Amino acid sequence: MSENITIDDLITKLGLQPHPEGGYYTETFRAFETCNPGNRYLGVRSTGTAIYYLLTPDTFSGMHILTSNEIFHHYLGDAVEQLQLFDDGTHKQVEIGKDLLAGQKPQVVVPKNVWQGARLKPGGKYALLGCTVAPGFDFADFSMGKRAALTAKWPAAADMIAALTRD
């Protein structure tokens, strides 16, 4: 049963490794088909990728931005709080989880060029998510955010930005 699974079990059974943004991951799919979607990429990209992504009480997904669309899927464990920062200066917080009556969503889309970061809700033990990216993920399209710059543009989200940055 998933209630008895441990973080170490998940890391071992799924072959997870530390992710540069925080948490643990492993790539589970990379499409063989490629595309060249224009000037927002340097070169060709896979049409899609997928990973397992694990958050634990001592990890978080640091604020970062991708030039591709990303979809999060909740598989196991506790709910996740995600912050999204939009170019027009607005932001929103969403909960990724299975408690639909509490407003959580089992699937959340982050559009390309939207800053994002996430953490377990307080008291959570772990969350196993899936992330699907289209066009496919490439580290060349990934940038980590800096607390001061993000807070300057989104001061209303300063507390959550502070919680989701390392500098």
TrEMBL record:
Pfam families from the UniProt entry: Cupin_5 (PF06172)
Domain of life from the UniProt record: Bacteria
PANTHER family assigned to the protein according to its UniProt record, in alphabetical order: DUF985 DOMAIN-CONTAINING PROTEIN, RMLC-LIKE JELLY ROLL FOLD PROTEIN
UniProt-listed InterPro entries: Cupin_DUF985, RmlC-like_jellyroll, RmlC_Cupin_sf, YML079W-like
Name of the molecule in the record: DUF985 domain-containing protein
Domain DUF985 stretches: 9-144
Coiled-coil residues: none
